[in-house]
Amino acid sequence: MIRAALRYVAYGDRRAVVAMLRPIYGAENEEAAQRALDVFEERWGAKYPSVGKLWRTRWSEVIPFLAYPREIRRILYTTNIIESVNSQLRKVLKPKGHFPSDDAVRKNLVLGPSTRQGELEAADPLVTSGGVLQDRVRRQIARLSQITQKI
Length: 151
Description:
Blueprint: H1 2-6, H2 14-25, H3 30-44, H4 49-57, H5 59-62, H6 70-77, H7 79-93, H8 102-115, H9 117-123, H10 125-128, H11 132-150
C-alpha cells in the first residue's frame, strides 16, 4: 500500500507522507488505524486526496493484517523476507519431487525449516526470531489445507 500511495506523492514529500502513514499500518486495531487515517487526511488530504482515497478503497485489504501480531506484520510488510521464507519452503519441497499424501507435504514443511534453523538464522534472524518462521509455516499449511478441501 505504501508503494502504491507514493505514486501520487511528490518526491520531496515522500518521507513526511510515509511518516504519517506509518501509524495506519502499525496500529493495534482497526479503530486506531481509522483514526490515524483521519489524521493523515487532515494533514495531507488537500494536497494528495488520491492517497486517502486509495487507502479507503482498499481498506478491506488493509484491516486483515491488523489481526496479526506485530512481529508477523513486520515480516508480512517486507516482501523480501516473505520471498525468502517462500524460497526456503521451496528448497524443502523441491528435492522430494512428489508426495504420497497431503500429510507428507505438511510434515516436510513443518520439519524442513526447523532442521535448517541455523542456516536461516544466519541468513536473516528476523525471520526465525520468536518462532515467527514456524508460525508462518503453520499459517501456510492451514491455507493449503483450506484450498485442498475446496477442490
